Amino acid sequence: MRAILFDWDGTIVDSMRAIFETYAAICRKIGVPIDEAIFRRTFSPNWRSMYRALGIPEARTHEAVQVWTTTFRSDQTRPFPGIAKAMTRLAAARFTLGIVTGGSRDEVEPQLARLGIDGLLTVRVYGHDTASGKPDPRPLQLALEMAGAAPQEAVYVGDALDDVRMAAAAGVRGVGIVSLLAEADELMAAGAVESAESVVEWVDRFLATG
Q1: Which of 61, 95, 152, 165 could be a cystine partner for 135, CB 3.0 to 4.6 Å?
Q2: Whole-prediction pTM value?
Q3: What is d(CA 19, CA 16) in angstroms, rounded to the nearest whole number?
């Protein structure tokens, strides 16, 4: 194993509740229904796919983007407890670390610096770096090229069903993190090879088993 790659929102940073509230504000603006069940059912890290699944007309996408920009506060996100230490342990074990996220570079890069883990996550693929987003394998394939790793030499860790679907499509071992989006059985059914309650729990288990 050479590379360990992560999703961002809901995996490294505790942001899914804020994302739900932002989508709720978007849906109120556009006039389409949403609740937690709809959010879970339609969620995709690919925001274009998410808008389509929610029933937001393409002609009103610009309104949705404006609501996102004024509502979601990426500068207030916080990492899950123990994340920085877990990442440091993986880096010390000489794994190449990185993120593959549907988020934008402009939103995530300042968070990396603020959270003190920018030096640990050396491979970074953002939502606009590839023509296709999750669950298409291309974002993860690009990250593997950047890491110099073959699919069988990598792990991808994420909390959304499309995260583990992308990993499976790319031939990478997928680890599902239980969150607001999915339970362990749902993640496994979508293609995860294993699941955990948090990244920290998985890192402890992974390093303990070599």
Answers
A1: 165
A2: 0.92
A3: 5
